[in-house]
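Q: I have 146 residues here and want to know how they pack in 3D. Can you give me a structure?
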Amino acid sequence: MSQALKGVEARFWKHFAAPALDTHKLPSALEDLATGFESYLKKIAVLRYECDTVKLHGDGINYLGLLHTTLGPLLEGKVAKVNPRDTSIPILNAPVVTFTYRRSNIRETIYDRVRILRNEIHEASQKSVVALLRGDRDPSSQQVLE
């Protein structure tokens, strides 16, 4: 487990501690960091839920399991469903770490912001990275770094 955490730390320092931030590499750097963090959470889930196969691996009918859950629901402790729109299947809770979106502390705020930023990079290739980092929602406020 400590190797996984060191990997996340190494990804962070590799991409974000450089003297000058290369904005062309920033989207892939954020993706790499989020992927490493997601992998780390899944390793915690394996240790925490090793005896609960439905929560960890799913049942093949209604639930996919924590190992197939994306970062947002993983942070929330919600096991991915086979059909996420099926409201007849109850939400299966399996908290991996203590986390809420209430932003009651700085760590939760950072997790939430990184999750949102990662999703925006995937969904909005026409926006500049700087605009995404600032949290601009209005496309007219885009600025492209030269």
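Q: Anything worth noting?
A: The helical segments are 2-16, 26-48, 53-57, 71-76, 106-123, 129-134. The longest helix spans residues 26-48.
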